[in-house]
Amino acid sequence: MGIKVLIVDDEENSVKTLQAEIDWDRYGIDQVFGAYSAEEARNVLKQEAVNLLLCDIEMPGESGLEFIEWIREGTRLAGFNMECIILTCYPEYNFMRKAMQLGCSDYLIKPIDYQELYQVIEKAVRRIEENREEEMKQDMVQELLSDSEKQDIIHTKVIPYIRENITNPFTITDIAKYAALNPQYMMRLFKKTTGKSIVEYVTAYKMEMAKELLKKSQWTNEIIAEKVGYVSSNYFIKLFKKQYGITPREYRKQLGGK
What homologous superfamily is domain 3-132 in, according to CATH? Predict the structure, then answer.
């Protein structure tokens, strides 16, 4: 199975240069897509199962970090992992920290050192291939378990893992590896056992944590978002409103401003 890459940068020349200058075949990469905004990149992701993302930070409308957070929430708990590499002109620590919080594997400063980029791509491809091999091993292990043993794993391994790592950027593959189950099968089993998808469970758990913090502290949305595992406070507010129909600020008002 080939590997698909998406390059996102508002500078069209930067995208086309990377597409043309790198020997993608060398890494087993058979398709390389380009996008010049987060919106265009979303359209690509709707059509293609991208394995590796190379993304700029500063772009009109939506930053690369906000876009990657959207990807992480949409794909990391949907049984599909994506390696993310930042390519940017900004060496600021705050940007680097947010990128690492989002699970980006590398952060390269423009102008790009191509030798360094080649090494980074090679490492990313190796991780993609290792994940695929691990899934094959998990398929073999789960065939040896009874149905009751598989369901018990949800309560004794999967749910505890989620709760203990709720503020970390874990993926379905991380959970499945810990539980020794195939990712796709684990998601179906989780839904059957709990009545919720893993995405729904994680979001609901985080929002309950946020409600408690809103009750017991005067922390800002920025601090609470970070405490429950979100990099962007705007994204946290959107999820909170979607979950409860009101914003965190409105929820505090209902509590009497506490």
Answer: Response regulator (3.40.50.2300)
Of residues 64, 75, 123, the one with CA closest to residue 99 = 64
Distance CA 24, CA 187 (A): 32
**Would you say the pTM of this structure is higher than 0.70?**
no
d(CA 28, CA 24): 7
Q: Which CATH number fits domain 200-254: 3.40.50.1820, 2.60.40.420, 1.10.10.60, 3.30.565.10?
A: 1.10.10.60
Rounded distance between C-alpha atoms, residue 250 and residue 241, angstroms: 9
Bridge partner residues of 55 (DSSP): 8, 86
Distances (CA, A) of 89 to 55, 86, 121: 12, 10, 19
Query: Over 80: is that where the pLDDT of 1 sits?
Result: no
* Max CA distance (Å), the chain: 62
How does the average pLDDT of the chain come out, rounded? 89
Annotated domain spans of the chain: 3-132, 145-195, 200-254
Provide the pLDDT confidence category of residue 258 given band limits of 50, 70 and 90: very low
